[in-house]
């Protein structure tokens, strides 16, 4: 076992060391490769080294280099190394953390980590939370709580509201909770891609007149398309007047609340009834590390509380945290150890400082990108994400869209950074998101230089 572990760790460390030299995006045109990889289960085992050779030398490189310093695409998940150690400990000690009685000290570590998130987000002491596999499952749990609180058993008349810029998981989560797509309203966003509260209010009133039951609003603390932050305070006021549940999708942006100078732009976030967090984004942990906070912890427990004759009696409900009573799973991993171990090793200040650096890098990047020929900034960075398009005199919308798409592709093809685009308000936009702990000034230099070179070949 020691020899196997030492071999794997050595290969993984070599891989991490090589990240700056790896292309920002590997060759993902791999249909033929994937067809060739199909195989039946082996009858006999294989030694470890050749398996690692295939995995690390041939298959891992055929992917987005998401942990690399040049990954400015989508929203990065950096993958801090101590979290991998936490997973190794979790898998080798293999303790059951689904219920408090089975591993009380370990569950308390997870409760501690959730309490740190609660304090950082300025939620009240009665709030409770849950670690999930990501923002999608956090949002599902939040909508479930809202449905239980406001609709009970009569689900069909219920209506949920979100922005036309919302993450696609909102619609999926609503459907999984029994709220069908025809009961989800995509509210128009303004010229800054923020949910329009006047349209929201009018739509709620119209649905009430039609005999429907508005029950929840999902807003964004940083959209995936442009990084837009909805007017959280105004939406919280509206939800209070209308007796609606307000869920904030803070998967990308919520951890910037750790920075005092950015709290104003996130004003209203602590007023949410529930909040999606993704430590695999703003805390730089590996993918698969999401979290949910619910202001009224009793609502989260009420949505999931259950027992069975084969389970031990539940602990006092307000003294000890029990994961199975706050989420849908009984058998589960130990996701909280990733957060607990990493924060204990580095301290909260390190995360605050890293977020400040990413913000500073973004301000530098948008200033320099905006100065490039033909670049129009469509969404200035409220946090660390900005969007833009490429134009020239006389260009049509279709020509601009094609040129901007080409700019993203050519910049990525140079291999030093990876950037992606999106479609918002009918226009194709390039976008840059700075959120990897490995991204520093050198990668911003590479971004600007490679975009400048690409623009020279694209513009007439």
Protein described:
With 460 residues, the protein is an alpha/beta fold. The chain folds into 2 domains: 87-346, Aspartate Aminotransferase, domain 2 (3-Layer(aba) Sandwich), CATH 3.40.640; 349-458, Aspartate Aminotransferase, domain 1. Helices cover 42% and strands 13% of the residues. It has 15 helices and 11 strands. The protein has helices at residues 2-17, 31-37, 48-59, 81-93, 104-120, 135-150, 169-176, 197-209, 232-242, 279-282, 297-304, 336-346, 348-370, 397-413, 441-458; strands spanning 128-132, 158-163, 184-187, 213-220, 245-250, 274-277, 290-294, 375-379, 385-390, 420-424, 427-433. A 7-stranded mixed beta sheet has the order 1-7-6-5-4-2-3, with helices on both faces. Strands 8-9-11-10 form a 4-stranded antiparallel beta sheet. The longest helix is centred in the last third of the chain and has 23 residues, at 348-370. It is globular, with a radius of gyration of 23 Å. The mean pLDDT is 96.
Residue share in β-strands: 5-15%
Helical residue percent band: 40-55%
Largest sheet, strands/sense/barrel: 7 strands, mixed
Count of discrete domains? 2
The CATH superfamily of the largest domain turns out to be: Type I PLP-dependent aspartate aminotransferase-like (Major domain)
What number is the mean pLDDT? 96
The side-by-side strand order for the widest beta sheet comes to: 1-7-6-5-4-2-3
End-to-end separation in angstroms reads 61 Å
Computed Rg: 23 Å
Q: Which runs of at least 5 residues are low in confidence (pLDDT < 50)?
A: none
User: Which class best fits the helix and strand makeup?
Assistant: alpha/beta
Number of helix segments?
15
Q: Might you state the CATH topology name of the largest domain?
A: Aspartate Aminotransferase, domain 2
Q: Which CATH architecture of the largest domain? A: 3-Layer(aba) Sandwich
Number of strands: 11
Highest-level CATH class of the largest domain? Alpha Beta
